[in-house]
Write a structure and sequence with these properties.
This protein is an all-alpha fold and 90 residues long. It has 3 helices and no strands. Helix 1 (2-40) packs parallel to helix 3 (70-89). The longest helix is centred in the first third of the chain and has 39 residues, at 2-40. The model has no long low-confidence stretch (mean pLDDT 87).
């Protein structure tokens, strides 16, 4: 019984680790998607101060990139695409 309990705890720990890795991969992918769109609208993405200053604007995201959660990043992408579209039209 003790062996089974240890096994189940180990399996649960592994599942948590895999979930965390997937979550981190998802966040990395979302940040990358945001940076790509920032680049497309003319933001210098090689300068983190520049990126964070732009994103911290209340009209954009209201906080720096590293403070945005997955849902905020997801919501930001269409907003940036809209900005790009408007700039392309002018």
């Amino acid at each position: 019984a003790q062996y089974l309990s240890g096994f189940l705890n180990g399996a649960a720990q592994m599942a948590d680790n895999i979930g965390t890795q997937l979550e981190q991969k998802g966040m990395k992918r979302m940040r990358s998607a945001v940076l790509k769109r920032l680049q497309q609208i003319g933001i210098d993405t090689t300068d983190w101060d520049n990126v964070n200053a732009y994103l911290s604007s209340k009209k954009i995201a209201g906080k720096p990139l590293y403070n945005l959660d997955y849902n905020e990043l997801q919501a930001l992408i269409p907003k940036l695409e809209s900005i790009k579209k408007k700039r392309d039209e002018t």
